[in-house]
Amino acid sequence: MVAAAPAESQVALADLPFEPPPGAVAAVRVIASITHTIGGLQVDDRARVLREDGSAIEALWAAGVDAGGVATGGYASGLAQALVLGLVAAEDAART
User: Fold this and answer.
1) 3-state secondary structure of 77
2) Max Cα separation, the chain?
3) Number of domains composing the chain
4) What does each C-alpha distance from 20 to 9, 52, 67 come to in angstroms?
5) Euclidean distance between the first and the last CA atom of the chain, given in angstroms as a whole number
6) Which range of residues forms the domain containing residue 19?
7) Core-most of 19, 44, 49, 77, by most CB within 10 Å?
8) How many CB atoms lie within 10 A of CB 93?
9) Please, which residues bridge with residue 41 across strands?
10) Sign of torsion, CA 8 21 63 45?
11) Could you tell me the pTM of the whole model?
């Protein structure tokens, strides 16, 4: 299980306000709000944060609305950016 919160603050599956799918080990709580900006930290295809010269900063990844350069022609969902780039960042961090 991957979680951003300390273990003592994690919600047990039995305490969720909905029935989790069979075999579920994690859930994402989604609350609608305006959280997106056109900007943010420049990242590469591995979600690594880049310096101004384009080189990656060691052990620093960004996802969601903190990652810039994704919505270059319009709106790209902040939640989608968080889920997709979060997974990419986690996989890259696990490899390093």
Assistant:
1) coil
2) 48
3) 1
4) 18, 43, 30
5) 19
6) 7-95
7) 49
8) 14
9) 67
10) positive
11) 0.58
Residue 2, in any domain of the structure:
no
Which is higher by pLDDT, 68 or 46? Answer: 46
Tokens 């300390």, located at residue: 6
Site of tokens 């690594």: 48
Residue 74 pLDDT grade (very low, low, confident, very high; cuts 50, 70, 90) = low
Other beta carbons within 10 Å of 67: 26
**pLDDT at res. 92:** 94
Give the chain's length.
96
3-class SS of residue 59: strand
Q: Is residue 1 part of a domain?
A: no
Residue in the block written with tokens 């900007």 = 39
